[in-house]
Write a structure and sequence with these properties.
Elements lengths: L2 H30 L9 H6 L3 H10 L10 H22 L2 H12 L3 E3 L5 H8 L5 E5 L2 E5 L5 H8 L2 H24 L1 E2 L1 H12 L5 H15 L2 E4 L2 E4 L5 H10 L10 H7 L9 H13 L4 H16 L4 H9 L7 H16 L62
Antiparallel strand pairs: 1-3, 2-3, 4-6, 5-6
Helix pairs in contact: 3-4, 5-7, 8-9, 8-10, 8-12, 13-14, 13-16, 14-15
């Protein structure tokens, strides 16, 4: 097959994939945000769901021996189970989700929907507790009328508030540790968590809370290698790099540093990071948001083991270098950034911090003779489009994070 014919076939394939994706997103949007009336009963809320959606709720709520029930029979079973699940929330949720639930109840049963990812909307809908829809032209989140008082009673329960606070701390510490260390075994993670909380962990209880949090926050994942930050694509290599530095302890972050890093969407914008952002906005006409996203990708490249020339090649696809002096100026800023980025492979240290122990990890200034693709720019990728890395995920959930 000729190159032109292959290109044409590939464009056709991507076009079909994009069309299917748009159709799926449109169906999902219509399902999430159809017209809704308030107040409504739990029975009315469940009745709006399809049998397929009710079966999903049944599975999430661990209802046994009900797969053969007809829709009305299943709704009757779920009415009871949803109210029982409400009592289990303090055992699983963190303050973000709990605050949203109690705010809905405190506001008479519904609130204008905050900015949520589609997967987070699915998370709430998947338990038959929080419902979504459009009321008088506004997207809202709502709870059934008979659940308002039980929810408000949870809000004022001191034991519930203590459990929610504990869960929040566990989740943020986990996300923060993996933000800086990349991948940790179960043993390593629990050991660090016990150090920061000064408490002994029940692993079965902890893993249930974290598994539920992963469904909502999508900041970490669990596999046979242990626990990893969502952007780690090779946890085995991260662990190997850690093992190679057996004489180097994990960087001793303070508890507050870890908790801060555990906030969803956190980015460690240190001095070198800010300098490169300002450099891009000043010398290349980038907007602040675009420059910030570009520098974040440079940090990510550093964390997965790419060298300065790899980063500069990436930047050459985005920027037009008008002189060797400009190239050198970019190099200087990039190397400064890379040497001051906390790396997964280095157990949370920067190359500069480990320079006296492992000088080979200091990034050398590369040669200015590299391929910068004649200053050509790449096509912008939409956040909801498929990621060009081939992962099959949306760009915003993969390399566009």
């Amino acid at each position: 097959m000729s190159g032109k014919k292959l290109d044409k076939e590939m464009k056709s394939v991507f076009s079909r994939l994009e069309r299917v994706q748009r159709e799926q997103e449109e169906k999902q949007y219509n399902r999430h945000w159809s017209e809704i009336k308030v107040p409504f009963t739990l029975y009315e809320g469940l009745s709006k769901y399809t049998k397929y959606e009710l079966d999903a709720i049944r599975k999430n709520l661990k209802v046994k021996n009900a797969s053969s029930l007809k829709k009305k029979e299943l709704i009757a079973v779920l009415e009871e189970r949803v109210q029982l699940y409400l009592k289990q929330i303090p055992l699983l949720w963190d303050s973000e989700r709990f605050k949203l639930l109690t705010n809905i109840a405190s506001n008479g049963g519904y609130v204008v929907a905050p900015k949520l990812e589609a997967d987070q909307v699915e998370y709430f809908r998947a338990y038959g507790l929080i419902y979504t829809g459009t009321l008088e032209g506004e997207k809202i989140l709502a709870v059934p009328d008979e659940l308002i008082k039980p929810i408000l009673s949870l809000k004022n329960d001191l034991k519930v508030r203590a459990a929610i606070s504990r869960n929040t701390e566990w989740i943020k510490l986990t996300q923060g540790l993996l933000y800086y260390y990349g991948t940790l075994s179960s043993r390593q993670l629990i050991s660090l968590l016990e150090k920061y909380t000064k408490d002994t962990f029940n692993f079965a209880e902890y893993i249930e809370i974290i598994a539920d949090a992963i469904s909502y926050h999508e900041e970490v994942y669990i596999d046979e290698e242990g626990f990893s930050n969502i952007r780690v694509f090779d946890p085995k290599r991260v662990k190997q790099e850690h093992e190679m530095r057996g004489n180097v302890p994990f960087y001793p972050f303070t508890k507050q540093q870890v908790l801060t890093a555990g906030e969803p969407g956190f980015v460690d914008r240190n001095k070198s990071y800010k300098q490169l952002v300002n450099f891009f906005t000043k010398h290349f006409g980038m907007g602040k948001e675009e420059a910030d996203g570009t520098v974040e990708e440079c940090v990510y490249a550093t964390r997965i083991g790419h060298g300065p020339n790899d980063v500069l090649t990436y930047l050459s696809n985005l920027l037009e270098f008008d002189s060797k002096e400009t190239v050198q100026a970019v190099m200087d800023k990039v190397v400064y950034l890379m040497n001051n980025t906390r790396e997964w492979f280095l157990k949370g240290y920067t190359s500069t911090e480990l320079s006296t122990r492992e000088k080979k990890h200091l990034q050398p200034l590369p040669s200015s003779e590299f391929n910068h693709n004649d200053g050509k720019k790449v096509v912008k990728i939409g956040r909801n489009e498929l990621c060009p890395c081939g992962s099959g995920k949306k760009y915003k959930k993969c390399c566009g994070r």
